[in-house]
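SEVERITY: medium
COMPONENT: batch folding queue
REPORTER: lab tech (J.R.)

DESCRIPTION
The queue accepted two submissions in a row. Attaching both inputs and their returned structure tokens so the on-call engineer can compare them side by side.

ATTACHMENT 1
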Amino acid sequence: MGWIKRNLFFVVGGLLTLGLLGGAGFYIYKGWSSNSDATATLNEQYAKLTQINQNPLQPGNDKIDNMATAKEQEQQMRDWVKQAVGYFQPIQPIPQGDVTSKTYATALGTTIYQLQQEAKQNSVNLPNQYYFSFQAQSSKLTISSGLGPLAEQLGQVKALTEILFAARVNDLIGIQRVRVSDDDASSGSQSDYIDERPATNDLAIITPYVLTFQTFTPELAKVISGFATSTNPFIVKSVTVQPANSSGMPADMGNVASPQMMENPGRFGPPGRFGPPPDSRYQNMPPGYPSGQPPQAMPAPVGKGGLQTVLKEQLLRITLEVEIVKLLPKS
């Protein structure tokens, strides 16, 4: 006992060390046991998977008919493919078949005239002598290159424009397309084109267009609905909306009054009319008030009923980025 008393700190430290070593050993054993159980479960699942892979496919049993289920799922997939294909109907080129400079020039003049007449019928304003982005080809009898892509673009521009006409937008500002001919690069208005190229993947060719027009919100909703319900493969990539006037604010914003001012404009006089009275209280009272008496609260005017105009519909300038998807032939 004397030795323990003399070496009390050493004994206590040794006991603590033994306790910590025992706890560490128990923790290690517990982790090892958990790892062993997990390894055994993994080996069991792997063995089952290996057995399933080695066994031939089974048609099922009296409760589960795998063959019928597979046929049903296959039919569902085929039905979905047929439904999806309905929204990817190709846009026919103008003209169809073999295209020459003569046939294209004739088709271009006829199509532009038809679109101009449709614009008049639907009260859509067009720029003066507008050729729907084909100004470079409108005055040429011989097209230098790209007759096939130009015929496809003419058909696509016609389909895009007719959706705007059907929605009866106010003004068609312009249509921009990608350059596909040497004439596009050398002549024509540069505002007819966008600096992009069609994108091609394993399934389709995606051609971008930019449409700019002016209209009100109901007609814009009709345009978006027209693209969404069309059987042609249109994808609206982005929609940019801003006021039609250049300042970015409604033209009559400075004249907008609050509903209270419109109901009773006489209540709102110059600034300070209802401010704190001067030291000689109530000396400037309106006629009809007793001298020295504060004014009585005026009853609130009775409204005439009905809705009040707070926001006024304004003309908007819309820029749509639309992509047309052309599915590649099946190989």
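ATTACHMENT 2
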Amino acid sequence: MDLLADVRATCLLHVGEPIVVLLSGGRDSVCLLDVAVRIAGAGAVSALHVNYDLRAQAGADERHCRALCEQLRVTLEVEAVQRPRDAGNLQAWARDVRLGAGASAAAARGAKLATGHTASDQAETILYRLAASPGRRALLGMAERDGLLVRPLLRFTRAQTAAHCTAGGLAWRDDASNDDLAYARNRARANLVPALRQLHPAAEANVVRTAQLLREEAAVLDEVVATALAGRDHIEVAHLAALPPALARLIVRRLAEDAAGRLCARAAGRLEAILALGDGAIDLGDGARAVVSEGALRVKRTPAGRSAPAAGGRRSCA
């Protein structure tokens, strides 16, 4: 396996194309930075390290990133942040800060933003989402391309990125918090993924390939939904009821997400309640509500601080 050649073949990185690499100092981001330099050239690559100052090793991690960037002749930007008391989930907050800082750095340079997510991360993400929230989207995982965000290592395992670093004489830092089983994703890493490898040594690669196939199929389903709506922001309830339930659920979700401007994972599960509603309104969750009037379904934003009660002749369970 030639990781460098295989990443080049993905066409996510190009010679001379500006790229900002999120650099934690771990094996995956170190591997990514080296690969980016080899493909795009050192002059096109810059790195961003976010120092959360949450661990005693944070200073050493930053120094390691500085030394690595000097070695590879890459410009490094360091973002120092402090966690607010009301930040909520630590890992979610850190991810949002990291991606926000990376997006700003990439925009300032007219560059893509690259993260070091691997096939191992993909398998963990899919397993976690399957456990935490039902639905087809859980199986889609992370995309190799998401706007300006690219994940060039998504087809490779952590063992492969470690092997690349070792072969190139590149040291990395291990984050002990990744082994803390207090975090659900870490439990998936420590328990579920090793169990999959015991079932089949190519388990991670198979999960990644499955996610790629499902993303392609999801694009087809999106076109079917668009055709059913034909550019309208509403649909006749009688028409909705006559459609296959799977397609009807997708249409409800599309209308909800267009109205709310965000993902509405729970909307599809309200199909039966919508069909039984009659004229009235019902909460779909995630900031959307279904409104049925004169036989037509429209979805609107839920007013701030309010949920939409069921109205009309019939009520349904919330």
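NOTES FROM REPORTER
The two ends are 53 Å apart (CA to CA).
No errors were logged for either attachment.
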